[in-house]
Every structure is written in C-alpha cells, then in structure tokens.
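Shipment paperwork, digital attachment
Item: protein structure file
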Amino acid sequence: MAGYLGWFNAALLTVSLLPFLLRRYRKWTRKKPGKKRNAVLKFLSKIHPYIGGTLAITGFLHGYLALGVIRLHTGYVTWFLVMILFGLRIWGKLSKNKYWLVLHRAAALLLVFSLLLHIFARNIL
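Attachment content:
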C-alpha cells in the first residue's frame, strides 16, 4: 500500500509542476497560446492548490505506512519541503508580497531533487 501511495504522490507532484513547465515551454518556444492550451493551463492552475494539500496529507500517510514511525529520512525531508511550499503560499497570500513566488519556485526545485533522492537513494540519511 505504501508503495502505491508513494507513486501516487509522485504523480501528484508531476501534475502540480505542469502549469509552471507548460508556461515556460510556451515562453521559450514563443508560440502563440492556443485555446486548448490555455484551457489546460487554467484548469491545472485552478487545481494546483488542492493537489498541494492532497500531497501534504498523502505524503504523511505514505511515510507513516512505510516506516511506522516519524524519523529523519529522505521521505521526511521531501514531505517537509511540501509543507514549506504550503507555508510559502500562505505567507504570500497573507502578506501580499510578490517575492513569495520566487521562493515557492526555488523550494519546488528543491522538492524535485529531494523526491529523486528519495526514490533512488532513500536510505542515504
């Protein structure tokens, strides 16, 4: 069960990253946005916060089911980065500061590296 939940979380993270990646792809290729692509981006952007919340909950469940205890592990670091992303969004909304987005993106990049480390070298810590 924990293995399936882990791969489900990896899929959630991938879907959560898609709005940013699709916008960057459009910017770098200088293609005019089509109606279909805009509709997909709008939908993905709308569900992005809900995916993050789901990832926070299911990530904790995955870790607890896999280990049975909470201890320092690459999975815990990955989950903690998800919580940092969540906190950055709350901070950005409350403070109306635009700098939160830069921090959010940097933390998301760290999250991707942390997830890869968790998948390929989970017992490194």
